[in-house]
Specification:
The protein folds into two domains: about 130 residues, MutM-like, N-terminal (N-terminal domain of MutM-like DNA repair proteins); about 120 residues, Helicase, Ruva Protein, domain 3 (Orthogonal Bundle). About 5% of the residues have low confidence. The protein contains eight helices and ten strands. It is of the alpha+beta class. Strand 3 and strand 4 form a beta hairpin. The radius of gyration is 20 Å and the shape is elongated. The chain has a four-stranded antiparallel β-sheet with strand order 1-6-7-5. Strands 2-3-4-8 form a four-stranded antiparallel β-sheet. Strands 9-10 form a two-stranded antiparallel ribbon. Bound molecules: zinc ion (ZN).
Length: about 270
């Protein structure tokens, strides 16, 4: 599943190729995504407009247009956004194609849990899908004071607190497991029981694991352009995720696995207290 670092990598890769260029047309081959694609919106707000910038909110990629409208894209479970020369044949499961004069940005999604939606001019601040999102983990707003303020009301396991996008966005299951290992915090600890230094280590751990993933994201550029293969990041830097029974890289204890609210949870029983 594409996570925050993959979406940010896509944003950084697309930016120099499509900003300040105009969209000559949008071809919609299948409207049946998680929410239906609305061709009328694309005709009204997107055709013939140019892109003034790209941004990201949580795992949503946002294309800002020169009429004040925006295109919002979410990759869902299996979505990919690829840059192709116009003459490259369309792959199966390509649902939406944005045409520029000599290239195309294609949205491909075999499982169709993704989203490609137009937000009318001036409506982005009121956009319903962003209404309940918490802070961005890589922003300065995500700090130990923020965690102290918001986690003090929550008795739920700290790992579930991290996964809740109303607290902090875009930290998926893999990153939550890895960040808690880095921070030396047991995943089942109640969120409101963390001490000051643990909150500091948690914030640092989350930022560090996401930044590492972003750096590795650069190496998936070719995969992304070709829209083939899986990102290389996961195998390279994982320390606990799916490592049950293997020795901890720090202390040699056996990594354990439990299930927390349906999500696989991995930890070192010695390093994580
Ligand atoms: Zn250990």
């Amino acid at each position: 599943m594409p996570e925050l670092p993959e979406v940010e990598t896509i944003r950084l890769n697309l930016e120099p190729r499509i900003v300040d260029r105009s969209i000559s047309g949008v071809d919609i081959y299948d409207v049946r995504l998680r929410w239906p694609v609305r061709p009328d919106d694309f005709r009204a707000w997107v055709h013939g407009r140019s892109i003034t910038g790209l941004s990201r909110r949580a795992k949503y990629l946002i294309w800002h247009l020169n009429n004040g409208a925006a295109v919002v894209i979410h990759l869902g479970m299996s979505g990919r956004l690829g840059l192709f020369p116009t003459k490259t044949p369309l792959e199966k499961h390509t649902h939406v194609v944005f045409r520029f004069d000599d290239l195309q940005v294609r949205f491909r999604d075999p499982r169709r849990f993704g989203l490609v939606e137009v937000v009318a001019p001036g409506e982005l601040d009121n956009y319903v899908r962003f209404a309940h999102l918490g802070v961005e983990p890589l922003s300065d707003d995500f700090n130990e004071d923020y965690v102290a303020r918001t986690a003090q009301r929550s008795k739920k396991a700290i790992k579930l607190w991290i996964l809740d996008a109303q607290n902090v966005v875009g930290v998926g299951n893999i990153y939550a497991n890895e960040a808690l290992f880095k921070a030396g915090i047991h995943p089942t600890r109640p969120a409101n029981a963390l001490k000051n230094n643990e909150r500091r280590r948690l914030v640092k751990g989350i930022k560090s694991i996401l930044n590492t993933a972003l750096e590795k994201g650069g190496t998936t550029l070719n995969d992304f352009r070709n829209a083939h293969g899986e990102p290389g990041f996961f195998q390279q830097v994982l320390t606990v995720y799916q490592k049950e029974g293997e020795p901890c890289t720090a202390c040699g204890s056996e990594i354990q696995k439990i299930v927390l609210s349906g999500r696989s949870t991995f930890f070192c029983p010695s390093c994580q207290k």
